Structure formats: C-alpha cells, structure tokens
Amino acid sequence: MTSKTQAVPLATPLALNRSAWPRRLKGLVLPVLILLVLEVVVRVGWLPSYQMPAPSEIALTLTDLAEGALWKHVSASLGRVVLGFVIGASLALVFAAWVGLSREAEAYLEPTFAGLRSIPSLAWVPLLLLWLGIDETSKIVLIAIGAFFPVYLNGVAAIRDIDRKLVEVGQMYGFSRRRLVRRILLPAALPGLFTGLRSGLSLAWMFLVAAELIAATKGLGYLLSDGRETSRPDIVLAAIIVLALLGKVSDGLLAALEKRCLAWRDTFQGAGQ
Amino acid sequence: MSVRALLDIHVARKRFADTTVLKDVRLALQPREAVSLLGPSGCGKSTLLRIVAGLEQDFQGELRRPDGEVAFVFQEPRLMPWLTVEQNIGFSDDNHYDRAWVTQLIEEVGLKGFAQALPKALSGGMAQRVAIARGLYSRPQVLLLDEPFSAVDAFTRMKLQDLLLQLAEHHAIALLLVTHDVDEALYLSDRVLVMDNRPSSIRQALAVELPHPRDRRDPRLAQLKALSLTALQQAHVI
Ligand SMILES: Nc1ncnc2c1ncn2[C@@H]1O[C@H](COP(=O)(O)OP(=O)(O)O)[C@@H](O)[C@H]1O
Ligand SMILES: [Mg+2]
C-alpha cells in the first residue's frame, strides 16, 4: 500500500517537464533541423548549388527582393486572390443558401453544379484565355471558379446537416422563414460555412499560381516562372516561401474570425498539450 | 367532457403513409390539471403531443387550444448552443427579451449565476432546467412535455419532477406529459392515461386523487402502481 503511494510522485515531475515545453518550440524542431542539414549538405558540396541553393543564400535573395520588386508582385497576387475569392465565395454562398434551403432549387440547380464540378477546374484555362484574353479578367475568373466549389459544397452540406430538432423549436414559436434563417439556420450552419471558406481560400491561392504561371507580367506565379527561365532556383524558392507565408497569414485571419464566431462550439480539442 | 376544458382534442385518425398511428383519441385538459400519457414505444404519444403543439397539422379530427400559449419541452433540451442560458430562455423574443422575467425564471429553476453560461458548460439536468424555463417564458397555460426527464439520472429526475410540480403550481399551468416511467406518471399527475398498441387509442384512465405535495413512499401510490401495471399488461404494453 505505502510503496504504491510513494511511486506516484516520482513519475509526475517528469511528465510535467515534458509537457511544459512550449508548443511552438516543438513545431520548430523539424524545420530548423532540415534547414541546418540542407545548409551543411550544400556547403560541403553534396548538392550542386545551382540546383539547390543553401538556405542562407535564399534568405539573401529574399532580402534583395524585398528591397526591390517583391512588393509589386505580392500586391498584384494579393489583389487577384482577394478579388477572385470574394467573387467566387459570395456567389457560392448565395447558391448554397438557395439550394440548401429549397428542395425546388436543389432539383433545378444541383445536377448542373454536380456536372460542372466534375470538370477539373484547370480545364477551364484555355477557354478562359480564348474568351477573356490573358489580362486580369481571366485570372480573376479562374480564381473565383476555384474558390466557388468548396464554399458551395460545404455550404449546402452545412445547411442540410442542421439538426431538425433545433429547427422545430423555431417552428414551435411560429417563426417566419426569414426569422428561422436568422435565428437558427445561419448560426447552426456557421461551422460548416467556415470550413468551406477556408478551403475555398486555399484553393484560391492554388489557382492564383496556376493563372500566373500561364500568363502574367507580375505576381508571385510570374516570379516562379521567371526564376525557372533564368535558372535561379533561389528566386523560385523565395517565391514559394512568400506564397506559403501569405497563404498561412490569410488562413490565420479566417481561423481567428472562426474562433471568435464559434467560441460556443463544444468540440474535441485534442489530447495533451 | 366539461365545457370549461382548457384544451380539447379529438384525433379521429392520424396516419403516416399507410400506417394508422392514432385512432379515435379523445383528450381534454382542465385548467391546472396534470395528465400523463403512458404507452408502448412507437404507439404515437409523441405524435399526439406534436398535434396538440401544432407541429403536426395533417390529421383528421378537431383541436381546440387555449388562447394563451402552449409551450413544449422536448425529450432533449434542444438549446441553441451559440446562445447563453439567458438568451436561450428569451429565445422567442429575439434580442429584446424581457430581462427581468428571464432573471426571475433563472432563479426559479435554480440556475442563479448561470445566466451567461453557454449550453456546453451545463450538465444534462441543468440544460433541461433551462429548457423548462424557456417553456415558461411565454407564460403558457399548457406545458407539453415529451419524456422530459428520461435522459437524466434517477436523483436528478426526482429533483426535476419536484421542480416541475412547484412551477406548475406557482404559475397555474396545466401539464400534459408523456413518460415511460409509471412512478413518474403517478407522482406528477391527476390522471394517468394508458394507450395501447397501434392504431392506438386511450385504453384506460386512472385517477390519482392524492393531494400535493405527495410522498414517494405513500402506500397509496404503490397501490395505484399495481393498478396501472395491470392496465399496462391488459393493453399489451408489458
Ligand atoms: N414523421 C414520421 N414519418 C413517418 N412515420 C412516423 C413519423 N413520426 C412518427 N412516425 C411513426 O409513428 C409511430 C408513432 O411514433 P411516436 O409518436 O414517435 O411514438 P412514441 O412517442 O409513442 O414512441 C411510430 O411507429 C413511428 O415510426
Ligand atoms: Mg416519443
């Protein structure tokens, strides 16, 4: 009996120590390790630097770019993503609400959307170029198409997943359709809508790169293809890093908004620290 | 049926597709009366309650409801998870609910201090208290309850039963309650109605003429329990 109770306090400090490691530091371990290894491998000459520049060299290129053309490219890309995403997501929300709320609308619209969805979105590129030329419009439209489907699909699913039992509470009070939407359907669908918006945004970035790789004179996708044409892998990698940062920051903004709006959710947060 | 009945319902026939669920069910509720419905699972008790609530309008028969509100407490609390306790109770008035009245109800159901809590922070019993308070918010004359305490543990259930009686008494509300629990039916109500299998009608009515507050250990309740068990057996419920 006594030996058992004594064994417990020995184990606790260890466990405490391990989980006291800040979460952020844990996440940094692997990337830092990879960067160090790469740096060494390139310096020693195991990898040719014209194919894989050392991380320090990429950092230099990045600072060079930051003093010059980078901001032009970033603002061009950011503008396109924002515009394309806003247009695509807004249309998707409108159609999702329509199809989600009305069986009639579903019967008319859903087969068409299902058909359109089965076209890989990049297959639109030649058509968009033919119809809209290679200027801004075709890029914005392509990004909007990319953002549309995840938002639409998640939106419809979110509405159709709403617990009928909650809706019945509103019916019990004789709520009008508008009031039902505002008081029950919209808040109940919000988690699914956010999921859709976030995956829509990440697809918007993907389609931005596609659009800019094909035809552009500025933008991060242009920087990518420019780096390839001038055999500058450091520029390509710098552009990739900037794209990753922008994607992360924009998703972080949506995630923060989601967290604020959905604080009421009672979900599993993962075990441990 | 008395002329002064608060609620009067006659369901000549209620069917879902080809199955007749209710057939010739008559029920009248007097002001401040408490009536329980006992019956086998799937016999249409919830359906009957939903007809009375107006949630189910496709039936043959007649329904006379009081001018005042009829409120419904469901088997699950059905609280809006994004609203606080306070906002849930005043749900029917959007954001301009009567705060003083809500605060009073929160106290009456014993949840003082939880006005700003979110449903995820409540236990099952507490959530059902909020649901009852939400039902009372509209100052109903009739409260319909569909197995309201079946999801909570036995001790919580007894507490909630006492709370319900106290609130019904205080606010002069008539109760129509569906339950699976014979003891609950006898403890709470003035009349126990036993329904039989589909197509169901009311097979037997049992008057529980005991004054409130009742003692759960009262031998007369035990006698009535024996009687109702016999009735349930005759109705092939058990
Ligand atoms: N919306 C519905 N559509 C079809 N059948 C239903 C529906 N609701 C209930 N039923 C059927 O009606 C019968 C009675 O249901 P219900 O009133 O929920 O029973 P109880 O509450 O007495 O257990 C059941 O057999 C059930 O399958
Ligand atoms: Mg039921």
Automatic annotation (TrEMBL), chain A:
Keywords attached to this entry: Cell membrane, Membrane, Transmembrane, Transmembrane helix, Transport
Listed GO biological process terms: alkanesulfonate transmembrane transport; cellular response to sulfur starvation
SUPFAM superfamilies: MetI-like
Transmembrane segments: 28-46, 81-101, 113-134, 140-159, 180-197, 203-224, 236-257
Compartment(s) of residence: Cell membrane
Membrane topology, as annotated: Multi-pass membrane protein
Family label: Belongs to the binding-protein-dependent transport system permease family.
PANTHER family xrefs: ABC TRANSPORTER PERMEASE PROTEIN, ALKANE SULFONATE ABC TRANSPORTER-RELATED, MEMBRANE SUBUNIT
UniProt cross-references to Gene3D superfamilies, sorted A to Z: MetI-like (1.10.3720.10)
Any Gene Ontology CC annotation: plasma membrane
Name of this chain's protein: ABC transporter permease
InterPro entries: MetI-like (IPR000515), MetI-like_sf (IPR035906)
Predominant location category: membrane
UniProtKB/TrEMBL annotation, chain B:
Span of domain ABC transporter: 6-222
InterPro entries the record matches: AAA+_ATPase (IPR003593), ABC_transporter-like_ATP-bd (IPR003439), ABC_transporter-like_CS (IPR017871), ABC_transporter_ATP-bind (IPR050166), P-loop_NTPase (IPR027417)
Keywords: ATP-binding, Nucleotide-binding, Translocase, Transport
Keyword Transcription in record: no
GO MF terms held by the record: ATP binding; ATP hydrolysis activity
SMART domains associated with the record: AAA (SM00382)
Pfam families: ABC_tran
Recorded family membership: Belongs to the ABC transporter superfamily.
Protein name: Sulfonate ABC transporter ATP-binding protein
Lineage: Bacteria, Pseudomonadati, Pseudomonadota, Gammaproteobacteria, Pseudomonadales
